[in-house]
Structures are given as C-alpha cells and as structure tokens.
C-alpha cells in the first residue's frame, strides 16, 4: 500500500519558509512519499523581509520575489496568510493537523543597545524605521524627520540602508514601490548630514562591497570618509587579504577618503574607530551622540583611547542587528534569540529533539546572512525532516486534511491565499501606474484591512 501524503506546515512565508517548502516538494520522491505544504504567514502578504526589509531602492533584490512565484505556483504548496501562529492557532493544534511543523519565523525587531539615553525621544531602532519606509502594516504610518543632523550606529548593510534613505530626496525614492504616506513623510525630511558610526576599522566593517559602492550613485549625496579613519594592523591586513569582499570594502572606503568632495546637498559621512558610549539628551530629547575614539590592538580588535567626541545630532538610529521573537509553545533561547536546534531539529530545554518540530532561516541561526543563505539552511532542515519521515519518526496527524481549514473557518479568520496575492499584486501595480510617476511599477498598499480585502479568498479544500 502506498504511503499517505505527508502533510507539513511551514510557519513564515519569508525566503526561508518558501525555499523549505520548495525543497520538501521537490525531494519527497526520494523517500517515496508525496508532500503537501501549508505555508502559514502572519501578514496578509508573503515574502517576509524581501518585501518588508530589503530597501525600496534595491529593485533588483526585491525582484527575487518574481523567482519565488515559481515555487508558490506549485499545486502542492498552499499559502495561508493572515494567520499568526501562537495567537490565532496554537502550536499544539498544528501538531495535531500535520506530520511535522517547520518554523521559519525570521526576525523583525531591533537588538537592544545598552547605552545611556537610548530611550530618549529621537532615538530610533533601525528595524522600526525600515518597517515604516517599507510599508509593513504592523509599523507606524508617520515618522519624525525634523532632525537636520542624524547619527546611525552600526556599520552593516542595514545601517547603510537607513543612512541612504535618510540622505536621498523623497523624489529620488518615489520611483520605487514606496507607499504615499512614506513619500509624504519623506518630503518633510530635514536631514542634510547623516553620520554613520562604527567602533572598528575598514577591515572589520560588515558592509557588502556593492551596497557601499552604490551609496555614491545618488547625485544628491556626498559620501565622505576621514583619511584618519583608514588604519590596519597585521590581523586586519590578514583579514583583508583572505577575503576578496572585505578587500573591496576597504578599497571603496579608501576611495571615499582620498577623493575630492562631491558638490551635493546632503553629506553622508562614515566614521570608523568611533565607539558610541552615550546618547546625549536635553528635556528627554536627543541632542547629541558621544563616542570614544578606538584604536587597533594588533589582533584586529579595538581598545578605547579615552578620547571622547560629542556629535551634535537630533536623532540617533540604532542599526546594531535584528532580533527574533519567540513563538508561544515553541522552545526559545532568550540569550541568542533563536529556537534552539540541532541542524534544524528543535530541541527542548533538556537538549532533546522535539519530534516533528523543525526550524530554518533567521529563527534557526540568528539574523545574519543574505537571502541566498536561507536556501542552504532550508536544505539542511528539510533533509533532516524527510529522513525522519522515512525512518517513521513522525506522528501521523490526528485530523483529516480538511480539518485545519474548518478550524480557521470556525474562528472567523479571513485567510489570504496565493491567488489572493496575485490580486493584491495587480492592485499595487495599478496604483503604481496611476501614480503618474515615471518608472513607478508598484505602489504598496499598507493598511492591513485593505490588503486583506484584496487577498482574502476562501481557500480550496483538498
Ligand atoms: C533591513 C534589511 C535589509 C536587507 N537587505 C537585504 C538585501 O538587500 N539582500 C539580501 O540578500 N538580504 C537582505 N536582507 C536579509 C534577508 O532579508 C534575510 O536573509 C531573510 O529575509 C531571512 O529570511 P527568513 O525567511 O528567515 O525571515 P523573514 O524574511 O523575516 O521571514 C519570516 C516570516 O515569518 C512570518 N512570521 C513571523 N512570526 C510568525 C508567526 N507567529 N506566525 C506566522 N508567521 C510568522 C513573518 O511575518 C515573515 O513573513 C536584509 C535584511 C534586513 C533586515
């Protein structure tokens, strides 16, 4: 007798969840089973941080969404959006309806930065600003952009995204998919100086070369690096020579340091060897950022020099990394902010694998790496799952295939679907065309209810 179809729930329709769904369907034949995947997403639209993290002026990266259509078009994969696991449906319930559950819930919040003044008005988490400008329906619709001088803490790609969006003009960004409320708010931006601060040197900066180079493409932004901020010790030289990408980062920073300043209305200065120690405040508002000068210690690390500088800025953006949130009912490591796992197999507090529960993507290994990295991650997790299925280690679902949709129906949840995404997509493209802005392919819809009104279609029972 042929084996019954394996029913898997993948939680989170970001790249990790989508790649995992794809691999499950593609590789199921290797264990002689068919697989059906329900890809369950909290938001009304799929694609996770590709839609709500990648900067709007990076259309090439956003274009990965198009290649993911091929996966979501597969009949074995069913997108069920507008369902938050842990709130609308418990993990226990999922386990009763599926052979296995993969968590691919990513990261959406800012990591804490523990310096005085961090709670002042004008001190912002980069993740919140990203959520605003990328039109995530869970984030604010307006933003205080009254600061003329702004500090961004963190020398990684997210810091650069934030600095670039704050430095460009609203009109430069309006050709992208940004929604109207974001355009209108960006028009109020007073920033003429944006200062990006990193505690270490060029050989330790976490930018990718392309992002760093591309900063200079805007005619309205003059990118500056102080020649004093270019320094290497033996370990830095070694780090640079062993990584082509790091070497390109160093070359680009050196290029910015030695060239003539560009005549542009906005300055974006990258400061290296400056460690932020305090956000300065007056009457609860940000009035500056204090940094301590650092120097290399010979091992590629830095030490403080005891020399402090106060930078007069009216806003500080903290781009020091993302942080994942726990899903109720799933083990969570509150120090590393990941689901504890062994190669993707979820572990209980005693370190024992929890049967039928898996993790992949940023929730599995922390919020580092590019979209492409989530693919190899998904391979590891899905190989494990399929091996467990082949070994008979997964408990069969307690309920028939249709029961999960009946449960959602009974709870009155307006589920959004893949067919619904096509309608939302078409509506956003029509808004882009109607905007009259040349080259604007899409204008994002931000309001949750409006998204649902386009994308809600009662899913077909299987
Ligand atoms: C600001 C920023 C810019 C970036 N720019 C780039 C770039 O230019 N190029 C690049 O390659 N990479 C970029 N990245 C990295 C890339 O976005 C990540 O590598 C990738 O998105 C991680 O994928 P993921 O699927 O693990 O998580 P996510 O993309 O975060 O997806 C997780 C999904 O799970 C959903 N979810 C969460 N909790 C629940 C729940 N309880 N129930 C149901 N669903 C849930 C979320 O809504 C989300 O859709 C950027 C990241 C950030 C933060």
TrEMBL record:
Gene Ontology molecular-function annotations: ferredoxin-NADP+ reductase activity
Ligand binding (FAD): 16, 41, 49, 85, 362, 369-371
Binding site for NADP(+): 199-200, 211, 369
EC number per UniProt: 1.18.1.2
Cross-referenced Gene3D superfamilies: FAD/NAD(P)-binding domain, NAD(P)-binding Rossmann-like Domain
InterPro entries to which the protein is assigned, alphabetical: FAD/NAD-bd_sf, FAD/NAD-binding_dom, Ferredox_Rdtase, Ferredox_Rdtase_adrenod
Domain of life: Bacteria
Domain named FAD/NAD(P)-binding: residues: 7-185
Keyword Flavoprotein in record: yes
Manganese among keywords: no
Essential cofactor(s): FAD
Keywords tagged on the record: FAD, Flavoprotein, NADP, Oxidoreductase
Catalytic reaction annotation: 2 reduced [2Fe-2S]-[ferredoxin] + NADP(+) + H(+) = 2 oxidized [2Fe-2S]-[ferredoxin] + NADPH
Similarity remark: Belongs to the ferredoxin--NADP reductase type 1 family.
Protein name: ferredoxin--NADP(+) reductase
């Amino acid at each position: 007798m042929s084996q019954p179809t394996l029913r898997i729930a993948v939680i989170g329709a970001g790249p990790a969840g989508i790649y995992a769904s794809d691999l499950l369907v593609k590789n199921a034949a290797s264990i002689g089973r068919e697989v059906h995947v329900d890809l369950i997403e909290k938001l009304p639209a799929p694609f996770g941080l590709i839609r709500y993290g990648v900067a709007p002026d990076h259309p090439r990266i956003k274009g990965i969404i198009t290649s993911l259509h091929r996966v979501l078009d597969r009949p074995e994969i069913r997108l069920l959006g507008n369902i938050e696991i842990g709130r609308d449906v418990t993990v226990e319930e999922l386990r009763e309806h599926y052979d296995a559950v993969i968590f691919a819930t990513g990261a959406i919040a800012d990591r804490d930065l523990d310096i005085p003044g961090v709670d002042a008005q004008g001190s912002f988490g980069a993740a919140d600003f990203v959520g605003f400008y990328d039109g995530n329906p869970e984030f604010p619709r307006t933003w205080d952009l009254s600061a003329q001088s702004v500090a961004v803490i963190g020398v990684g790609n997210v810091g650069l995204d934030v600095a670039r969006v704050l430095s460009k003009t609203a009109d430069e960004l309006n050709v992208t998919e940004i929604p109207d409320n974001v355009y209108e708010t960006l028009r109020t931006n007073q920033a003429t100086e944006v200062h990006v601060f990193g505690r270490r040197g060029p050989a330790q900066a976490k930018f990718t070369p392309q992002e760093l180079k591309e900063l200079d493409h805007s005619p309205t932004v003059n990118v500056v690096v102080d020649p004093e901020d270019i320094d290497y010790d033996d370990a830095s030289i070694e780090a640079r020579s062993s990584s082509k990408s790091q070497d390109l980062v160093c070359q680009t920073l050196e290029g910015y340091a030695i060239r003539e300043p560009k005549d542009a209305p906005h300055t974006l200065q990258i400061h290296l060897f400056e460690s932020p120690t305090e956000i300065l405040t007056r009457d609860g508002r940000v009035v500056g950022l204090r940094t301590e000068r650092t120097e290399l210690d010979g091992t590629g690390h830095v030490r403080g020099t005891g020399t402090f500088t106060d930078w007069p800025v009216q806003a500080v953006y903290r781009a020091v990394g993302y942080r994942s949130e726990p899903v109720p009912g799933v083990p969570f490591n509150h120090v590393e902010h990941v689901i504890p796992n062994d190669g993707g197999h979820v572990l209980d507090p005693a370190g024992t694998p929890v049967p039928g529960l898996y993790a992949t993507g940023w929730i599995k290994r922390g919020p580092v790496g590019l979209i492409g990295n989530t693919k190899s991650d998904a391979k590891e997790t899905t190989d494990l799952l399929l091996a467990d299925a082949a070994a008979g280690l997964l408990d069969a679902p307690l309920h028939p295939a249709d029961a999960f949709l009946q449960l959602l129906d009974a709870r009155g949840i307006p589920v959004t679907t893949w067919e619904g995404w096509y309608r939302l997509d078409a509506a956003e493209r029509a808004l882009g065309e109607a905007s009259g802005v040349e080259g604007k392919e899409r204008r994002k819809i931000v309001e949750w209810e409006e998204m649902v009104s386009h994308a809600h279609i009662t899913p077909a029972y299987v």
